[in-house]
Amino acid sequence: LLSDDRDRPLRGARLVVSAGPTREALDPVRFISNRSSGKMGYALAAAAARAGAQVTLVSGPVALPTPPGLERIDVETAADMHAAVMALMGEADIYIGAAAVADYRPSEIAPVKLKKGRGASVIALTQNPDIVADVAALKPKPFVVGFAAETDDLENYARGKLIAKNLDMIAANWIGREDGGFDSDRNALQVYWPGGAASLAMTEKSALAEQLITLIAEHFHAKNS
Ligand code: CTP
Ligand code: CA
């Protein structure tokens, strides 16, 4: 192995990362969304670029600068993110779904601002497409990594999603614990794949992202050799 291969384990790989929340409009001034700062997805995109990958970051609305050396596509809704990601999949070797995609959108978007006290207390919702599952259903499919944030029963839910969505790997984290998660600069991950698991201990998201990218690179190369 050349030293360059060890430093840049994703050299030449085309990688797409989704990050941040999506926003689903109710009316011109209101939306439904998920708690997500985008920090983990952005850290992964930056780490993948440092590892030599050709990175496209598909980003929901976040307050973060674009990391150096990658292309960023901004989207707002889950439907927009689905379209942007699927359009990139013909060319992608790896997809990392780190976005907190809204599971539902309001069935109708009011063209004018909704007014209080006019009986509009029930919002009808329509389920959004599952982006990571649709990517993993492609033939041929890229190496697909999903995320899961869970408040309870982490391993069962994460392994359930790994199987149900036909993912190659899933990175899961606890939410509602004192350190790590949403707005934090730190996190810990339990990583699962069909034949095994790894624990990445609580640390800065930039260091954690580097460790996860190393793990992804190993499994990506094992699958493609
Ligand atoms: N995901 C996606 N598209 C969606 C919903 C989720 O691509 N419409 C992806 C997320 O980016 C993540 C993975 O699916 O990589 C798991 O997301 P999660 O919300 O934990 O799973 P769900 O299947 O939506 O299950 P639930 O919210 O009920 O736990
Ligand atoms: Ca969800």
Automatic annotation (TrEMBL):
Catalysed reactions, as listed in the record: (R)-4'-phosphopantothenate + L-cysteine + CTP = N-[(R)-4-phosphopantothenoyl]-L-cysteine + CMP + diphosphate + H(+); N-[(R)-4-phosphopantothenoyl]-L-cysteine + H(+) = (R)-4'-phosphopantetheine + CO2
EC numbers, comma separated: 4.1.1.36, 6.3.2.5
GO-annotated cellular components: phosphopantothenoylcysteine decarboxylase complex
Domain of life: Bacteria
Positions spanned in the full protein: 173 to 397 of 401
Record domain DNA/pantothenate metabolism flavoprotein C-terminal: where: 10-218
Key words of the record: Decarboxylase, Flavoprotein, FMN, Ligase, Lyase, Magnesium, Metal-binding, Multifunctional enzyme
Pathway noted in the entry: Cofactor biosynthesis; coenzyme A biosynthesis; CoA from (R)-pantothenate: step 2/5; Cofactor biosynthesis; coenzyme A biosynthesis; CoA from (R)-pantothenate: step 3/5
Any GO BP: pantothenate catabolic process
Cofactor note: Binds 1 FMN per subunit.
Record's protein name: Coenzyme A biosynthesis bifunctional protein CoaBC
Region (Phosphopantothenate--cysteine ligase): 15-225
